[in-house]
Amino acid sequence: MYLASPTVIKNIAAKYGFTFKKGLGQNFLTSKEILERIAESAEIEYGAIEIGPGFGVLTDELAERAEKVVALEIDERLIPVLKDTMSDHDNIKVINADVMKTDMAKLIEEEFGEKPVSIAANLPYYITTPIITMLLESRLPVKNIVVMVQKEVAERISAAPGSKDYGALTVMCRYFTRPELVCVVPASLFVPQPKVDSAVLRLRVLDKPSVEVSDEKLFFRTVKAAFSQRRKTLLNCLAANFPHGKAALTDILESLGIDPRRRGETLSIAEFAELSEKLR
């Protein structure tokens, strides 16, 4: 069955009396070309985990490339639909579960052992950042995380220092991964059609963090503080979040060759690492 078609998606919805829930961010992609790009970008060697398969339009592409696909679907109404639409494949396991409440490390160990795994997902806009944060902070043994997200979020994650999109989310993703914007996906390619465009983002998971820090919590606290008030200088942002006092903070910044008048969005991830070490 060719699933990536607005007509087929609407027919499946009618067959099962399925109504799309805005609260779950249910917008199904109808472009086979984009679906193929997502699946190819995952660079699957053995296994794939999909978050939110919906009717299975991406699951179908992943199953063509993987030895095994595990799909996590939060909406129990979609379980019988997926059983039907994925009936041509014998390498797909669908689990009715909320990824935010799932022990992903345990799932990977039980389903794939030590075999290589990639993650792919068309993430609901409302929970994009929490899911990406959870996947990265869990330090999962995965090669790539390929996600379709709101275009604005993809631009933030892949932004360069000094740009208006560069922020704490950018730094976090660059700490754990090498982000790459794969392509932009117009809203017109979804059913139902969202109000904004999306983008496909590949996060190549690093073997070790991109910078070395002795206190990871302090590193991320420093990053968060620097972006806490984007219009204020780095000195003022740090002073509002650390007890060192402005004079001591000025000395720390100047010792690193960082002008206290700079703003957080101008700092590279290496500069954040050096700064966090000095704030210990």
Automatic annotation (TrEMBL):
InterPro entries: KsgA/Erm (IPR001737), rRNA_Ade_diMease-like_C (IPR023165), rRNA_Ade_Mease_Trfase_CS (IPR020596), rRNA_Ade_methylase_Trfase_N (IPR020598), rRNA_adenine_dimethylase (IPR011530), SAM-dependent_MTases_sf (IPR029063)
EC number(s) recorded for this UniProt protein: 2.1.1.182
UniProt entry keywords in alphabetical sequence: Cytoplasm, Methyltransferase, RNA-binding, rRNA processing, S-adenosyl-L-methionine, Transferase
Residues that bind S-adenosyl-L-methionine: N27, L29, G52, E73, D98, N122
Domain Ribosomal RNA adenine methylase transferase N-terminal: residue ranges: 34-207
Catalysed transformations (reactions): adenosine(1518)/adenosine(1519) in 16S rRNA + 4 S-adenosyl-L-methionine = N(6)-dimethyladenosine(1518)/N(6)-dimethyladenosine(1519) in 16S rRNA + 4 S-adenosyl-L-homocysteine + 4 H(+)
Gene Ontology CC annotations of this record: cytosol
Main subcellular location: cytoplasm
First-tier enzyme category under EC: transferase
One GO MF term: 16S rRNA (adenine(1518)-N(6)/adenine(1519)-N(6))-dimethyltransferase activity
The UniProt record lists the keyword Transferase: yes
HAMAP family linked to this entry: 16SrRNA_methyltr_A (MF_00607)
Family: Belongs to the class I-like SAM-binding methyltransferase superfamily. rRNA adenine N(6)-methyltransferase family. RsmA subfamily.
Biological role stated in the UniProt entry: Specifically dimethylates two adjacent adenosines (A1518 and A1519) in the loop of a conserved hairpin near the 3'-end of 16S rRNA in the 30S particle. May play a critical role in biogenesis of 30S subunits.
Name recorded for this polypeptide: Ribosomal RNA small subunit methyltransferase A
Gene it is expressed from: rsmA
